[in-house]
Amino acid sequence: MTIKRVLLGIVVLVAGFAAFAVAKIGPGNIIGMLRYDTRKEGNLRPGSLAPDVLLHAVAGPGTVRIADRIGRRPLVLVFGSFT
Fold first, then answer.
1. Residues 53/65, Cβ–Cβ less than 8 Å
2. Could you state, in order of their start, the residue ranges of all structural domains in the chain?
3. Which of 4, 7, 69, 79 is least buried, going by the fewest C-beta atoms within 10 A?
4. What is the model's pTM?
């Protein structure tokens, strides 16, 4: 009888957390996170060379390759929001 109550308590807690997450984040965002999350652990470590990627230019149309701009110099990427 005690094990059933503990399991019921755990189920109620998980359901409560899920309901809170849906209310706070929104059901569309949760579905999007589950559907489009393709994260995987990378193999970059401190001192690794930056992968050569193609970026959209901020000032004007076109693209920019990282390797063309930095060569062998260190690269620092800053992600943030200014809004």
1. yes
2. 2-40+49-70
3. 79
4. 0.36
